[in-house]
Structures are given as C-alpha cells and as structure tokens.
Specification:
- By secondary structure, the chain is of the alpha/beta class.
- The protein has a single domain, classed as Rossmann fold (3-Layer(aba) Sandwich).
- It is about 45% helix and about 20% strand.
- Strands 1-2-3 form a three-stranded parallel sheet, with helices on one face.
- It is elongated.
- The N and C termini lie far apart (about 35 Å).
C-alpha cells in the first residue's frame, strides 16, 4: 500500500483531502506543522491556521478516519530560515521571496 503524508490544518480542504486519499487506498498519516506560536499573538490575523483549536480539529478528523496524526514543531527553523531572511531583505529595500 502506498503511503501519503497529509498536511492537515483542521479546515475542510485538508480534511476532505485526507478522506479522499484514504478512500483511494493510501496508507495516510496526518501532520500539522507548527510554524509559529499562534497562542502568543505572533499571528498577524485574528483567525489564522494552526491555533490549538485548529490542531484539535485536525486531530479529531484523523481519529475519525483512523489515521495517525502528529504535530511537528518547526518554529525555530521557520523563524531562522524564512521569517528572519524575509525581514532582513525587506529592511534592506529588497523584495523578499520566501
């Protein structure tokens, strides 16, 4: 059986994608990538992906589909490899392209 790693946000699109892949016979694993701390106000919008509520929604969908689910913490790497270079390029007058 082929494996599929499904990025799950807790929203409808990723949940349906997981369902469809499972129905197609894939051995699915659900993941959510934690890229920043949405609970401390670092998020710019009032409704963002990957709050604790979103993670719980994704976890519940994975449980309903009987697929394993993991939250992967990439906060430090994302900050160092995407956010900081973006800010540095912007501050230097460039056009950032993460």
């Amino acid at each position: 059986m082929e494996k599929a790693l499904i990025a799950m946000s807790g929203g409808v699109d990723s949940s349906v994608a997981a369902l469809l892949m499972k129905e197609k016979g894939y051995d699915c694993i659900g993941i959510t990538m934690k890229l920043y701390d949405a609970e401390t106000g670092q998020a710019c919008r009032s409704r963002t992906c990957c709050t604790l509520e979103d993670v719980e929604d994704a976890r519940q969908v994975a449980a309903t589909l009987s697929i394993p689910y993991y939250v992967l913490n990439f906060k430090d790497d994302f900050q160092k490899k995407v956010i900081l270079p973006f800010v540095e390029t912007y501050e230097a007058g460039g056009t950032p392209n993460p």
